[in-house]
Amino acid sequence: MREGKITVEAIKGMKGRRRLASLTAYDYPMARLLDEAGIPLLLVGDSLGMVVLGYPDTTHVTMAEIEHHVRAVARANPKAMIAADLPFHSYVTPQCAVANAQRLMDAGADAVKAEGGREILPQIMAIKEAGIPFIGHLGMLPQHILEEGKYRIKGKDEEGRAKLIDDAIALHEADVFAVVLELVTPPVAKEMTEKFPFVTIGIGSGTDCDGQILVTHDLIGMFPWFTPRFVKPTRQCGVEIRSAVETWKAEVERVG
Ligand code: KIV
Predict the structure, then answer these.
(1) Domain range holding 173?
(2) Would you say residue 228 lies in a domain?
(3) Domain presence at residue 252
(4) How far is the CA of 227 from the CAs of 96, 218, 238, in angstroms?
(5) How far is the CA of 251 from the centre of ligand 1 (A)?
(6) Is 241 among the domain residues?
(7) What is the CATH number of the domain that holds 83?
(8) From the CA atom positions of the chain, what is the Rg in Å?
(9) Is residue 203 lining ligand 1, measured as CB closer than 6 Å?
(10) Is 22 in the pocket of ligand 1 (CB under 6 A)?
């Protein structure tokens, strides 16, 4: 293992002490750059389906595609922990959840993430029993887009809040070390952060989580055709690339 490698214990130890800044990485150069910038947790998220592979949503992403990108990120040999998403339909039973989680670990992941709470508790327990570190994902679950039809904020009423808290209790029972909270109302995200020992990693869920995660392409303007409302891009890399290419093309054409 690389010296200084970020472990589960190191991430757990950040709760209440230091905010966790996490980003997605899908390939070797981005993993190296983010690691050099000191990001402690890199997620090979199934968001790669949209921002890298051009799918309309994450339900099209396959195990083979995630594995391919985990291998690329792992070749960067980052200090950062590499977490990998279990894609849609890859964890419908405890047996296939463990087999697919193991495939991602064999590809170079240090932990896996899957969407859901109590309804996938047997799968999470099986993954944990296999010795594989697990990150939960509650709130708006992008892999449910086909059933739900829209990406909606969760926890807006008492029923929604109670469901989130119950799912968080299930994840706590499974002793997961971190949970992504996606599009959870800020008061409920705060409540979960205060109530549970796992590290909460918010995305579009307000500032009161233990950490934040973003899709790197959203943060740096690398997918300029769509930016979620809660993201303020710090750069416009897509615009920069287009402009650099236009300059070079004009130069080639002028000389020719
Ligand atoms: O796939 C992904 O990038 C994610 C983040 C949005 C948390 O799950």
Answers:
(1) 8-219
(2) no
(3) no
(4) 34, 6, 12
(5) 39
(6) no
(7) 3.20.20.60
(8) 19
(9) yes
(10) no
Could you read off the pLDDT of 121-138 as tens digits, one per residue? 999 999 999 999 999 999
The DSSP annotation for 189-202 comes to: HHHHHHH-SSEEEE
Eight-state DSSP code of residue 87: P
Per-residue b or e along 59-70, where b marks 16 or more CB atoms closer than 10 Å to that residue's CB: bebebebbbebb
As a whole number, mean pLDDT of residues 3-10 equals 97
Query: Which two tokens mark 211?
Result: 């950490």
Q: Is residue 63 part of a domain?
A: yes
Testing ligand 1's pocket by substitution, the residue of 26, 215, 219, 230 carrying the most ligand atoms inside 8 A of its CB is 215
**Has this prediction a pTM greater than 0.90?**
yes
Whether 22 shows a pLDDT value over 70: the answer reads: yes
- Count up the domains in the chain and report the number: 1
- For residue 246, the CA-to-ligand 1 centroid distance in Å is 32
Predicted confidence (pLDDT) at residue 255 exceeds the cutoff of 90: no
**Sign of CA pseudo-dihedral 156, 160, 165, 171:** negative
The whole-number pLDDT of residue 256 equals 62
Give the span between the Cα atoms of 134 and 114, in whole angstroms. 8
